[in-house]
Amino acid sequence: VFHFLGALGLRNNFAGLIGVYTAFWLPFTIIVMRAYFVSFPRELEEAARIDGCTDFGAFWRVVLPVSRGALASISIINVVGIWSELLFAYVLMNKPEVRTLPVGILSFRGEYQVAWNLIFAGLTMATIPTVLFFLVFQRQITKGMTMGALR
Fold it and tell me: Are 53 and 61 in contact (CB under 8 A)?
């Protein structure tokens, strides 16, 4: 990946890092969402088609609103995983001006001393977007977790 992105000129570039994250997290997302949609009741789609919806209309008006819990859950997993990822960002982003937050926090560790106060302040700041994302989608996540228990 390092040499490939270097040959494309995408090293130290956020577009290259986004491409790597997409390639890394997309298979997991597809597997989880496929498992959800396989277990989705076909009767709901058939009822929408009987009511006159097209395939896209049934998906947009019936399947997507019912799937909000699963979509929110997989979004939380992806956001937390990508936000806290260190390895790809550390290897692919060498310049200090393009560092991600976890790599920037890692720079507070020196050879002979560690600035623990700065590390913990940075870690506290790094958790704020994740907590806010969870608070925004909390209702959908709770609905998605209890949906499987009620069947």
Answer: yes
The residue behind tokens 């958790």 is 127
Environment class of residue 137 by beta-carbon count within 10 Å: exposed (0-12), middle (13-18) or buried (19+)? buried
pTM of the model as a whole: 0.77
Q: How far is CA 123 from CA 18, 83, 128, in A?
A: 22, 12, 9
* CA pair distance 8, 75, nearest whole angstrom: 29
> What whole-number distance in Å separates Cα of residue 17 and Cα of residue 120?
25
Give the separation between CA 28 and CA 82, rounded to whole angstroms: 13
Distances (CA, A) of 138 to 78, 135, 142: 15, 5, 6
> With the CA atoms of 36, 37, 43 and 49 taken in that order, what torsion angle do they form, in degrees rounded to the nearest 10?
150
| pLDDT tens per residue across span 13-32 | 999 999 999 999 999 999 99
Backbone φ and ψ of 109, nearest 5°: -100, 120
Q: What are phi and psi of 114, to 5 degrees?
A: -125, 130
Smallest CA-to-CA distance from 128 within 98, 85, 84 is with: 84
Contact 32, 47 (CB under 8 A): no
